[in-house]
Design a protein that fits this description.
With 282 residues, the chain is an alpha/beta fold. Helices cover 35% and strands 14% of the residues. The strands form 2 sheets. Strands 6-5-4-7-8-9-10 form a 7-stranded parallel sheet, with helices on both faces. The longest helix has 19 residues. The chain is globular and about 65 Å long. The two termini are 16 Å apart. The structure holds nicotinamide-adenine-dinucleotide (NAD). The site of nicotinamide-adenine-dinucleotide has 31 residues, from helix 4 and helix 6.
Length: 282
């Protein structure tokens, strides 16, 4: 029997005990309390890759197999990062807004190339690697901070791995591709922006809480960064307190957690999880 729940919070707690498997997106919180309501649950499929909405430790204890859709939406996210980089480094929104107001801002603003710029990737996992490949096609230099990357991967991707401090100091674009955990939570704080020497563009398509989105606006207003793209937030949907501060004078892109969600990735992600589920119970 398959059940599709829309508004899940209350419903899920009431019905979870009936099922051997559950498939979730990123909003459904499968915490200890809810998991304890089902002693027969064997499989959790996650239509995405971040597992911060699932109590993994508890799943291990309960012998519940957790299957993320690893790599299935990484092309979509990598394209989001490159398109945002191009858009922001060229000040496209600001040119657009000025032009459509009749200002013809041809000489007031600068446009730049991605070619030759340093892209610093925080995290060199599935998505970081995809971004690296695309960025190199545009002639960008790619560096990364990721202490868990092996020498062979480093060699394969011809990537320079450096410290966090050095990366934020020398990058023209900083893109975050980290999981949310106790080491990465609040990794970028308000005072971190003053260590960025190139007024970089910041892109966060990973998880909210790794940086504080309100600090991004403060850093932009202090002229410490030259733009930002943000797809993930502490609280989703994003709070008024944040979006009320966004106006057309800011070189930014703000999106509702859609970097990995495209028509193509939706099909790949769903196919992948359903096939894994079928195999698991065969
Ligand atoms: N916005 C979206 O729609 C969307 C879609 C897919 C994934 N994501 C998010 O993107 C992020 C990256 O996904 P991925 O598939 O590349 O993950 P991944 O697990 O493949 O890669 C993460 C990398 O981060 C590194 N890392 C872990 N802790 C670190 C630390 N403390 N310091 C430095 N490096 C560290 C790991 O070694 C790994 O290489 C995740 O947070 C995921 O949830 C968002």
């Amino acid at each position: 029997m398959i059940k599709i729940c829309g508004k899940i919070k209350k419903k899920l707690a009431n019905i979870i005990n009936e099922y051997d498997a559950i498939i979730v997106r990123n909003k459904t919180q499968l915490n200890k309390k809810i998991l304890n309501k089902n002693k027969k649950l064997k499989f959790i499929g996650r239509l995405g890759v971040g597992l911060d909405n699932i109590d993994i430790k508890h799943c291990k204890k309960q012998k519940i197999y957790v299957q993320p859709a690893t790599g299935m939406n990484s092309d979509s996210v990598a394209e989001y990062v490159i398109s945002s980089s191009l858009h922001l480094i060229k000040n496209i929104s600001l040119f657009h807004n000025g032009t459509t107001k009749g200002l013809w801002p041809r000489t007031i603003l600068n446009s730049r190339e991605l070619n030759g710029k340093i892209i610093g990737l925080l995290g060199f996992g599935t998505i970081g690697k995809k971004v690296c490949k695309l960025a190199k096609n545009f002639g960008a230099k790619v560096i990364s901070f990721d202490p868990y990357v092996s020498k062979s991967i480093q060699k394969k991707f011809n990537i320079k791995l450096i410290s966090f401090k050095k990366l934020i100091k020398i990058s023209d674009i900083i893109s975050i591709h980290l999981p949310l955990n106790k080491n990465t939570k609040n990794l970028i704080k308000l005072n971190t922006y003053s260590l960025m020497k190139k007024k970089p563009i910041i892109i966060n398509s990973s998880r909210g809480y790794i940086l504080n989105e309100n600090d991004l606006i403060k850093a932009y207003k202090k002229n410490l960064i030259s733009g930002f793209a943000i797809d993930v937030f502490k609280k989703e949907p994003v709070e008024k307190n944040f979006y009320n501060k966004i106006d057309k004078s800011i070189n930014c892109i703000v999106t509702p957690h859609i970097a990995g969600v495209t028509e193509e990735s939706n099909v790949r992600v769903s196919d992948f999880i359903v096939n894994k589920l079928i195999k698991f119970f065969k």
